[in-house]
Amino acid sequence: MEDRICGVWKLVSQYYEDVETGERVAPFGDRPRGYQIATKDGRWMALATAAARRRRPMPSESLPFVR
Q: Which domain holds residue 45?
């Protein structure tokens, strides 16, 4: 089974659904960005962000004393 689900998937949509009302909410908007990774040894990693999220500057770009 583990071999069949190993790999990397690109996120194309994400929503939460209220099971009582059927209402769907897209927490990261209509076009979220992200990936999910599954390894043979059973490890999982997922990352999801909003498409409009802006990149923050690295500390070396914003703090003159960090090199």
A: 2-53
